[in-house]
Amino acid sequence: MKNNRGRFRMLLRHSLIAVGLLSGTVSHADTAGLTPCYAKGLADQLLCGSVEQPLSENNSEQISIHYAVIPAIKQVHPTEAILAFAGGPGQSAIDVAAVFARVLRYAREERDIILVDQRGTGKSSLLQCDMDPLEAQFAFNDDALPIFEYSREETQKCKTKLNTDLSHFTTAAAVKDFEAVRLELGYKKLHLFGASYGTRIAQEYMRRYPEAVASATLDGVVPMQQSLIAIGEAIDDSLQAIFSECADSAECNRQYPQLAQQYRTLLDALIAQPATVQVPHPRMHNLIPLVLTQNKVRSAIRMALYSHTTRALVPLAISEAVKGNYLPLVGLMGSDSAFGSLAMGMHSAIVCGEDWPALTAQTRSRFASSYFGRLMMESLDASCPIWQVSAVKKDFYQPLSTDIPTLLLSGGLDPATPPSWAELAMVNMTNARHLIADEATHGVAGQSCADKLVAEFISQGDPDKLDDSCLKKATVRRYFMNPNGPAVASQEP
């Protein structure tokens, strides 16, 4: 379809249901067959390997599951390791090794960290749809075509390209690969660390292989019984928090009076007529065409909510865009690079095999109350019948029942996995504790003292002994009052 290139990536970004020190020590892992390797952004030398796994129980085809080990700074517990699960769904754990090394830096002082590219991601049979460059996304009018029709068309193209049954790439199908890696490396006990979607597969691992788990930390919790489509409600709540904070702050309210109304005015204007302008490329700085639509604005603001750095720019971006200056908003759009690294085939396997089949008339009505909830459901209604992913078994949705020591972490401003989700997840956990960092967004261990708490928890094994007072420390950044920074704007006498 002419001029439609680029829309699929933009569509996916809108409708997605979704993060050292040099070491000279040698990992305890059985190093036979492992090779030294490096990961992006991490100076440390890792050990990399792979293990062959059947694609399915009824299929003789094999799939290579790739993994990496970040050696402990000092090998104090040679039979234990930390197994880190990436988010997304669709993120490669090895690709974000530097993030895990930073978030788990205190825990790594005494234990290796294992990173596994979940099947369908990274080097483990990557399932990626064709994506267009940022220029094409900026220039495309994503309000010009019905999302249902376009999603169906692009899904068919991706299915033809991948030519595989996504039923082999769900959480339930992938969990055994992580156990195979543990056995391959020879660790007796694992301390799990899951982030975002990674908390879902961590819980499934705990359910399947409880004897292998010494403890589990779930950061940004996705309950087994909670559909990822409920993220639409979390997005709305997180944005509303900005509007409320600004209204309650004399400084912010003076600079950005009626911010919520400004946002509504901006969206209404773009719904009536998208803005077509020339803007500097966010990274290259050459002028490129931008067709600004309400979808692009909503998506940029949504992604800005994940980080305090970008969150502080939201009032400025909205206020300037209403005036016709889209540069701050373009900066937020250009800062969104995470979704380009997501394996969209694997992402579709998860949401079509686990979240879409569980939708009921009641949940559909509830999720339709938010913009992104409606968008996600419409997109899945178009794409999932084409993918034909086999639905997971009904018991998959049961909350995890376990006495394994478990630490759950939530950010009070999280636009994806709010604290209420963790409360749902722990209803049948008898040895668990839920800690909330009120001013944190998504990924508490990466933006607070929780990284030290995680290390302490892994060492002690008792969540009730943790002193969480440090989580009360203020972390929210002041809003930008002008393009120069969070300074008080000058006022006329």
From TrEMBL:
Location in the cell: Cytoplasm
Gene Ontology biological process: proteolysis
Protein family per UniProt: Belongs to the peptidase S33 family.
UniProt signal peptide: 1-29
Pfam family, one: Abhydrolase_1
Presence of the UniProt keyword Cytoplasm in the record: yes
Enzyme superclass (EC): hydrolase
Keyword Hydrolase among record annotations: yes
Taxonomic superkingdom: Bacteria
Gene Ontology CC: cytoplasm
GO molecular-function terms, A-Z: aminopeptidase activity
Coiled-coil region: none
Domain Peptidase S33 tripeptidyl aminopeptidase-like C-terminal: 370-470
Keywords: Aminopeptidase, Cytoplasm, Hydrolase, Protease, Signal
Residues annotated as domain AB hydrolase-1: 82-263
Entries under Gene3D superfamilies matching the protein: alpha/beta hydrolase
Name of the featured protein: Proline iminopeptidase
EC number, as in UniProt: 3.4.11.5
